Amino acid sequence: MATRDNSRIQSSGPSELSRNRSSRFASGGSLRRSFNRRYPAPNLRAAPDTLNRSKSYVSPGKQTVGDKLTRHSNAALIAFLLLIFSVPAWGHVGSPDVFLEGNAGPYKLFVTVRVPQVIPGIAQIEIRSESNDVREIRIAPMQLTGPGSQYAPTPDVAQRSTTDPQFFSGNLWLMEFGSLQVRVNVDGARGTGQLAVPVPAVAQRTLPMQKPLGILLFLLMVLLGFALISIASAAVREGDLAPGAVAPAAKVRRARFALVIAAIVVAGILFIGGEWWKADDSRFARRVYTPPELESTLTPDGHLVLHQKPALISAGNPRRPADAINFDNLLLDHNHLMHFFMIRMPQMDSFWHLHPAPDGHGNFSLDLPSLPPGHYQLFADVVLTSGFPVTMVGQLKIPELKGKTMTGDDSGTVAIPIARSAKDADAYTFADGGRMIWDRGSTPLKSGTPLSFKFEVRDKDGKPANDMEPYMGMATHAEIIRSDASVFAHVHPAGSASMAALDLAQMGGAASPQPSQQDAMAGSRSVDMPGMNMSSMDSSGHVSPDISFPYGFPKPGLYRIFVQIKRAGRIETAVFDATVS
Prior knowledge:
By secondary structure, the chain is an alpha+beta fold. It is built from 8 helices and 29 strands. Strands 1-2-3-7-6 form a 5-stranded antiparallel sheet, with no helix packed on it. A 5-stranded antiparallel sheet has the order 19-18-14-15-20, with no helix packed on it. A hairpin with a 5-residue loop joins strand 25 and strand 26 (488-491). Helix 5 packs antiparallel against helix 6 (249-287). The two termini are 27 Å apart. The model is unreliable at 1-91 and 512-529 (pLDDT under 50).
């Protein structure tokens, strides 16, 4: 195999990214545009000299002391709000970012969307162009479905890196929960192009207040409270007295009474404010997204029934209802309504990718194949009709059972336990002697870095495999799982976004016609749509032995990667382990 460059997608350093941020709200409007012009999002991680070069928040001209105080107060308030709201990110289970490799017209792009953990929040957009003939890239947030998917707001210009002309970055405000998209418009020497990136926007956690900030705010509250009480008492005692006059005893008594009344009023205001804060915090906490639970029932003959626990995906726009997880109302994704994964834990030595079918009673069911007994971690991928992808999680203890023969797209493998495997090996041998080789590159794997995973499939004679076929319409499918199961991602050559959501995004929010359930279960539909990365497949469906997909590890740790392909009608699964720093 020829030596390639390392697979890491190089990007500008943090300071360069910090200088190349642009901000935008998730919906248009003159008020929001005015806000962005007056209060550009400051880079809170930039060096002091970068912050000092920020634009002024007021027009130049003669300013009073009050004007200056107002200016600095506004700037501090905006910085404080952005400090609270700008935290990266989410996806699948424990995987925070959205990665997409696709074509905007004639331009191939690698797009990373770092979704904020709180909504409203700022999403960080990073775009790398494969070619150097791109003049400008504009980005805009939109709803994925509904009326908002048809009318894009005025886009922001992504800033080109001063050290890497093929790298662009920008910031976008996401103001709503639910299924959104980032619309990427490209202008260059070969004309214009457009690519839509689906983005599931949900609150991932509540951000605790920093202790020093809490102490400061408490002291300010006490100071303001005493100031209000003192002002009320002084106003009654001395409000109508001449300068230097002594207040009579009657006024002193009334002032003491006013002080008590003011103290009661201030205490009441603080109590009401505290209760409002608790209620608002509780309301937001209910919107924090956690992977929905999957319940399962296994019969002695190996028939598994999957039930979803009631769950809602919050919608940020009050005019858009919350998404309910309804097994009777899903979109086909890779020709199936559900992708079901079983991994025996903690060994991670038994992996199964199955496709249950609706049973007509609001559940999914399937007959399990023969698989090693043990404790299994379950992941079930579905896509709601809004385009929102959901991964449900569960656990199941499998006894000894005689299962059914797998058919269609179902597949599985038994591998060496992760504790005994050769860590960071770059080759996997199949049962027929063929091999899959991972072009890992020379640099260590690091979390938070967008990567292009590249593999080559060889036959038993060491030659590039010429019997590759599409597997569920794609050159490959890969499942990336952390050793503690805290991270799970199902990716493909186009990236981490679900194909059903990609389909909606490229079609402008209108679902395209889908095949019948019988065709879907047979895997007869191959996926081919504008913007998708099909570099490993030609127009006839022939699959190259060189396969790739984009992804980035969300956090350090030990990961197991299952790379699935189809050769000569057989589904094969290669297993790789990766230590991420």
